[in-house]
Design brief:
There is one protein chain. The protein is α+β, with helices and mostly antiparallel strands and about 425 residues long. About 30% of the residues lie in helices and about 20% in strands. It has nine helices and 14 strands.
């Protein structure tokens, strides 16, 4: 069975499936529909193969005839013979062209529609080839030796930074100025708690006899301490060539911005986590005298107890919570027994709050714990706000045309009331 016969057989099988469903006055089942579609698909594939075979046979016949004619007419002399007529006349008179024209336009007239590609035709004795209905050279916008040589990229002027974590702590705490390298303040360590009701005296001299009232008032006690905080320096620099700074005007502004933002980022990390060793600040995590709320049952229970502890033991009204982003996500995703979000879920509006107290998120707050505090009891004394300086006197940079761009800031940090801060264990 040849290809055409196989194609007809497949189509007849598909038709039989349709005829059976029609005779039974019903629609095709899913299996019948899938089987009929497969049979039709196989038949169409064979049809394409038949068309390809016919096309290849025509090309083979035309090529054989062309080679035969050329070999019969090949000159015996060593000098190449130029064919007669113009290129167009030689193309139209070619055997391969005539055979292709007959197959696509039997009447001799081309009609509108897709004609496909004509065979290649030799029209010159030196191997000059052409394609019917085509062009020898195409000007493109991709090739750098063509129109692409005129394509110039547009400089948008856009500069996109990698980005840094937002900082929040400086906006919560008290910020003051200082003009010295050490700041001191007085902190009360004991307050008067001896007040008591006192009866009026009934004797001038107390002898100890029954019924005597001395009328002596209770004496109060109060204590203080002087606390010192040392100014610390945070700094960073980068190197650049003078040529780069001159030729790329934008780069100096980018460098200055990067340096300033790095200082701010480092400061927030120090205020939370500085260990107080050397030039490190003593951050919240390492301050003495702060309160601690141990984990109890769940986050909501623990956080509510922390409010009470800060009010009763710390004697402070909190101004904000400080959570890490991952821990605050855990809080917002908390659900009740019916799967409802405690905080309204994704449709909740307004700034985040927990037990009525505003919440801020800091990427420098260690996950697993959070802070509740009256943040005004933390003070940052600015000795020297962020400054940028540049010099070529570093090492041998002067003779190498290099510049050091330095950013630095100086400040002191302290908790004037450590018990105004409570660290909450979240797990």
């Amino acid at each position: 069975m040849n290809k055409k016969e196989r194609m007809i057989s497949l189509l007849e099988q598909a038709q039989a499936i349709l005829d059976q469903a029609k005779a039974e006055e019903r629609n095709l089942t899913d299996d019948e529909h899938a089987q009929a579609m497969k049979l039709m698909g196989d038949a169409m594939q064979i049809r394409d193969e038949v068309k390809t075979d016919e096309r290849d046979a025509e090309l083979k016949a035309s090529l054989g005839q062309l080679l035969g004619d050329m070999r019969q007419n090949e000159p015996h002399s060593q000098e190449p013979q130029q064919p007669k007529g113009t290129l167009g006349e030689r193309f139209l008179a070619d055997v391969a062209w005539q055979a292709w024209k007959k197959s696509v336009a039997p009447s001799g007239q081309f009609t509108s529609g897709r004609l496909g590609m004509s065979p290649a035709v030799m029209v010159g004795s030196f191997g000059l080839w052409a394609k019917a209905m085509g062009r020898k050279d195409l000007i493109t916008g991709v090739d750098s030796t063509s129109a692409g040589a005129f394509v110039v990229a547009e400089d948008t002027g856009i500069y996109e930074q990698i980005g840094r974590y937002p900082t929040v702590l400086r906006d919560l705490i008290s910020v003051r100025q200082t003009t010295t390298d050490v700041v001191e303040y007085v902190r009360q360590t004991a307050q008067v708690t001896q007040a008591a009701p006192t009866a009026e005296a009934n004797v001038k001299t107390v002898s100890g006899a029954t019924g005597e009232i001395s009328g002596e008032k209770p004496q109060g006690a109060i204590a203080f301490e002087r606390v010192s905080e040392t100014v610390k320096t945070i700094a960073v620099y980068v190197g650049a060539t003078k040529r780069a700074l001159s030729d790329a005007a934008q780069i100096r502004g980018i460098i200055d911005q990067e340096l300033r933002e790095d200082l701010v980022d480092c400061l927030e990390d120090q205020l939370f986590n500085g260990n107080g060793v050397g030039e490190n600040f003593t951050g919240l995590a390492n301050q003495a005298g702060t309160l601690v709320q141990a984990f109890n049952t769940d986050i909501l229970t623990t956080s509510r107890q922390a409010l009470t502890t800060l009010l009763v033991t710390g004697r402070q009204i909190p101004t904000a919570w400080a959570f890490s982003p991952t821990d605050w996500e855990t809080v917002e995703l908390l659900q009740d027994g019916d799967g409802r979000y405690y905080y309204g879920g994704p449709l909740s509006q307004g700034p985040p709050r927990l037990w009525g107290v505003p919440v801020v998120q800091s990427f420098h707050q260690t996950a697993g714990s959070a802070w509740l505090a009256n943040w005004r009891k933390a003070v940052l004394w600015d000795r020297e706000q962020a400054t940028i300086t540049a010099t070529d006197s570093h090492d041998d940079w002067f003779i190498r045309n290099m510049v050091a761009i330095l950013a630095e800031m100086r400040a002191a940090f302290g908790l004037i009331r450590p018990s105004a801060f409570i660290n909450i264990e979240l797990a």
